[in-house]
């Protein structure tokens, strides 16, 4: 029963509904399902001496994933992506909560400030960070003018620069879904918790966090896996000295011309995304007990 009405008596979607869904279904089939199937097929192929794909099926591409060098790449990628996700939550949650609880007039301005980075090209923003972090850049010049440092700090082409670039790139993708959950937060639930003499920490842990957890989960999905596959930030800010999984995939398709092995790595990324999704879904809302 649904509001006193039997589910069996509800009207079923007719052909017109499926007709409206047709553009979406075509888009998904063309740009999601078909490329994924092609990637899966290529991952079992081989390449010849000229780099052409040979449809001789083998599992050698997946066997290469267990080499010591690839394990280092996987470990480094997971560490960087995990650290990026953690920092995005640490920085983005308070920002999203502040925006979500602000008056509507201020909320629009704050949201616009979060969206400002998307107004320019990602490559332009990455090169801007190169200018900021270089030896003669804005950051070193600012610190030198304050007499904090005597010599320029070596920031560019370091792991620190890569982490800053990843944090800057993916922070909005953490703020926006959490903001969506905070905006729908029922204030009466918080007031009831305070009326029952719960401390601010207990109110946050037992009321606010469980109610906003769907936004946190969405943010994790939007940050963790894309951070693993990012190659532009590591190339521009890391000087290709910190290769992640995305760099290896990009190299296989562009330079090494080994599409089968690059496809196998792409399938691994897809599996990692599914594993992250299942882990977040299984984790569910934090216990309020």
The succession of helices and strands, N to C, reads: HEEHHHHHHHHHHH
Biggest pleated sheet: 2 strands, antiparallel
How many DSSP-defined strands?
2
Rg from Cα = 24 Å
Structural class computed from helices and strand pairing: mainly alpha
Envelope shape: globular
H/I helix tally: 12
Structure characterization notes:
- With 289 residues, this protein is an all-alpha fold.
- 70% of the residues lie in helices and 1% in strands.
- The chain has helices spanning 15-42, 60-63, 68-100, 104-115, 122-133, 138-145, 159-183, 187-195, 200-229, 232-236, 245-254, 259-283; strands at residues 46-47, 53-54.
- It has a two-stranded antiparallel ribbon with strand order 1-2.
- Strand 1 (46-47) and strand 2 form a beta hairpin.
- The two termini are 31 Å apart.
- The model has no long low-confidence stretch (mean pLDDT 86).
């Amino acid at each position: 029963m649904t509001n006193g009405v039997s589910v069996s008596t509800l009207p079923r979607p007719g052909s017109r509904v499926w007709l409206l869904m047709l553009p979406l279904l075509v888009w998904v089939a063309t740009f999601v399902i078909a490329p994924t199937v092609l990637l899966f097929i290529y991952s079992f192929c081989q390449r010849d001496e000229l780099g052409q794909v040979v449809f001789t099926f083998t599992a050698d591409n997946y066997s290469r994933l267990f080499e010591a060098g690839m394990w280092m790449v996987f470990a480094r990628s997971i560490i960087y992506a995990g650290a990026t996700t953690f920092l995005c939550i640490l920085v983005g949650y308070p920002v999203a909560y502040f925006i979500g609880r602000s008056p509507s007039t201020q909320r629009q301005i704050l949201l616009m400030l979060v969206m400002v980075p998307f107004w320019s090209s990602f490559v332009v923003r990455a090169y801007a960070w190169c200018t900021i972090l270089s030896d003669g850049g804005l950051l070193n010049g600012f610190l030198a003018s304050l007499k904090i440092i005597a010599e320029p700090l070596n920031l560019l082409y370091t792991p620190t620069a890569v982490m800053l670039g990843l944090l800057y790139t993916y922070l909005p993708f953490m703020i926006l879904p959490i903001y969506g959950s905070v905006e729908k937060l029922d204030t009466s639930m918080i007031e009831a918790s305070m009326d029952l003499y719960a401390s601010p920490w207990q109110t946050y842990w037992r009321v606010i966090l469980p109610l906003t957890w769907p936004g946190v989960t969405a943010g994790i999905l939007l940050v963790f896996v894309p951070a693993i596959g990012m190659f532009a930030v590591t190339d521009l800010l890391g000087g290709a000295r910190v290769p992640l999984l995305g760099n290896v995939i990009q190299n296989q398709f562009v330079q090494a011309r080994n599409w089968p092995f690059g496809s196998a790595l792409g399938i691994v990324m897809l599996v990692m995304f599914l594993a992250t999704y299942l882990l977040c879904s299984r984790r569910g809302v934090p216990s309020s007990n």
